[in-house]
């Protein structure tokens, strides 16, 4: 499609995916506080240079001396996120200019502008509130939501899946699957932001038990107050194991829901083969996530595997958004 808005939307989706994966890399590389201030880095728009600039930065932030590799990771993520925000603003402006055209998305691009502004605020709080788990988790979920809405905008703008045979029961199941996935995204983010990814270092058991000792009250206390440095986590071993274990249980629930949804899509393919393509894509995305999740545990959280697990979650979200979009298109209704 040669439409400029469509091409800009596609570019923005690609960049949003990059921002999510780079953000995961920054978090998992323990570089979230690589720059202790916001929006700059030690008062600069880039990382302070060696020599006088670094000495001045260390004097201004004696509690966090300059670590250039971490600082550059954080700033590159900020540059990418800022560029994403500008592209989304350009989308909204273009949508307003073309508001009288048929099928032009008008409201969704401006909703994305509001969302990306809130994401910027969360990014600031992530630093100024010292990696508070609730804020960092919300920031990750906001990134996933931004990606999902950009993808939804593209699908609607391009009139994808128009005329596919709709199935009311499929709509309900696809919606349930989307809710289940977002719940699992929260659990995954909560696991990461509380540094609980290795709280269960064995698989399929957790610390040698099929059901480990748990402390749900501490594990899911969302607010611990301000002024606490949450870098490397503040929870004891038992609450961290609880978070990790619940994330594993959530993965089982999501996998079952996705398998049921894929089987329904495959059945729908008896009337329209295109549903089977979505079923196959869903199965591949779920399988990839399961493999990456298990590998992250048994290999003791290699950085690239952990980052790929975040990227795999984004990919699964895109597939599931496509399923939801297709299930709501106008067309002959399957019985």
Automatic annotation (TrEMBL):
Pathway(s) annotated for this protein in UniProt: Porphyrin-containing compound metabolism
Alphabetic keyword roster: Cell membrane, Disulfide bond, Heme biosynthesis, Iron, Membrane, Metal-binding, Oxidoreductase, Transmembrane, Transmembrane helix
Membrane-spanning residues: 76-96, 108-128, 134-154, 166-187, 245-265, 277-297, 303-323
Main location: membrane
Subcellular location: Membrane
Membrane topology: Multi-pass membrane protein
InterPro entries: COX15/CtaA_fam, COX15/CtaA_HemeA_synthase
PANTHER family to which the protein is assigned, alphabetical: HEME A SYNTHASE
Name of the protein described by the UniProt record: COX15/CtaA family protein
């Amino acid at each position: 499609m040669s439409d400029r808005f469509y091409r800009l939307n596609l570019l923005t989706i690609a960049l949003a995916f990059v921002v999510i994966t780079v953000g995961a890399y920054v978090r998992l590389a323990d570089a979230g506080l690589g720059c202790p201030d916001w929006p700059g880095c030690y008062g600069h728009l880039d990382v302070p240079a060696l020599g006088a600039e670094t000495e001045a930065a260390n004097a201004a932030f004696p509690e966090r001396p300059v670590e250039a590799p971490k600082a550059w990771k954080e700033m590159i993520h900020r540059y990418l996120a800022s560029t994403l925000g500008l592209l989304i603003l350009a989308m909204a402006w273009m949508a307003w200019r073309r508001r009288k055209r048929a099928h032009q998305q008008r409201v969704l691009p401006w909703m994305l502008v509001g969302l990306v502004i809130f994401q910027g605020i969360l990014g600031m709080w992530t630093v100024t509130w010292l990696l508070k788990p609730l804020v960092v988790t919300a920031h990750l979920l906001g990134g996933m939501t931004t990606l999902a809405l950009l993808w939804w905008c593209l699908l609607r703008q391009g009139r994808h899946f128009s005329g596919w045979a709709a199935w009311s029961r499929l709509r309900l199941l696809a919606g349930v699957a989307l809710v289940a996935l977002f719940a699992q995204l929260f659990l995954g983010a909560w696991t990461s932001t509380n540094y609980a990814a290795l709280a269960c270092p064995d698989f399929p058991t957790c610390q040698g038990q099929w059901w480990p000792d748990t402390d749900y009250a501490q594990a899911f206390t969302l607010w611990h107050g301000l002024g606490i440095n949450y870098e490397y986590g503040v929870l004891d071993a038992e609450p961290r194991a609880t978070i990790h274990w619940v994330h594993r249980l959530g993965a089982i629930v999501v996998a079952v829901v996705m398998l049921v949804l894929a089987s329904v899509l495959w059945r729908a393919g008896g009337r329209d083969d295109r549903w089977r393509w979505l079923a196959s894509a869903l199965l591949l995305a779920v399988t990839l996530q399961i493999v990456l999740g298990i590998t992250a545990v048994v290999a003791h959280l290699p950085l690239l595997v952990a980052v790929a697990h975040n990227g795999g979650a984004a990919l699964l979200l895109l597939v599931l958004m496509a399923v939801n979009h297709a299930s709501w298109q106008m067309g002959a209704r399957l019985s």
